[in-house]
Write a structure and sequence with these properties.
By secondary structure, the protein is an alpha+beta fold. Helix content is about 20%, strand content about 55%. The chain is built from one helix and seven strands; from the N terminus they run E-E-E-E-E-E-E-H. A four-stranded antiparallel beta sheet has the order 5-1-7-6, with no helix packed on it. It has a three-stranded antiparallel beta sheet with strand order 2-3-4, with no helix packed on it. The longest helix has about 40 residues, at about 170-210.
């Protein structure tokens, strides 16, 4: 049989070289304009996120969002209704910087040339819990999740097949295809002969049964 694979060749490709996924929980504390007596709701908007490579091939997830807290407070009488309950919304913009560990498919970060990273949000930020401390400070527990990939240039070993892209080996490739076609034809003829033999045997058995 003709030897198809003659050697291995090292090539440079741009591929995903590392992946990582993780969830985060963080607590934000801030004061509102008025002293809150009750918290009525919370929502997070304007979420933005990006990823940057850190030393050693790690990934830092950096971003920001706005926390909206709806709360109730008692008026001081300046509006003509002392002791009257009012509501207000406090908006606090926060930033975060989290380390997201990644696992390199190439074994180490040193094997990746010109790395860059991208990040996707797997769980949008949401307020899991809101509370007031004794001093009236709002505490918001936020959870979210992210997945990151490191993309870069790396090396792969691929088999080199004789005759592919080489006019000098066209004859060998033609012989290879003819040999494969011949083998397939022989297998087909053998299967056909077996089918004919089985059909003839079955017919003879039926004739013997009728004659009896």
């Amino acid at each position: 049989m003709i030897e198809v694979m003659s050697a291995l060749r090292e090539i440079f490709v741009k591929a995903v070289c590392a992946r990582g996924k993780r969830g985060f929980v963080r607590t934000h504390r801030f004061r509102t304009k008025y002293h809150p007596e009750d918290l009525l709701g919370c929502r997070i908007t304007n979420h933005r996120v990006t990823a940057v490579l850190t030393g050693g091939g790690g990934v830092a997830v950096q971003g920001s969002y706005d926390i909206h807290v709806w709360y109730a407070y008692t008026g001081d009488g300046s509006d003509g209704g002392r002791g009257r309950v009012h509501t207000a919304v406090a908006v606090q913009s926060v930033e975060f910087d989290e380390h997201l560990p990644v696992q390199y498919l190439t074994g180490s970060a040193g094997a990746v040339l010109h790395p860059e990273c991208r990040v996707a949000c797997t769980r949008q930020p949401r307020a899991r819990e809101i509370a007031l401390d004794a001093d009236g400070v709002v505490q918001v527990l936020v959870e979210d999740g992210y997945a990151a990939e490191v993309i870069g240039e790396t090396t792969l070993w691929v088999p080199v097949y004789a005759g592919v892209g080489s006019s000098g080996d066209d004859k060998k490739m033609l012989e290879l295809w003819e040999m494969m076609d011949s083998e397939l034809d022989d297998e087909f003829e053998d299967d056909l002969a077996e089918d004919e033999f089985d059909a003839g045997t079955e017919h003879e058995l039926k004739e013997e049964e009728v004659s009896r």
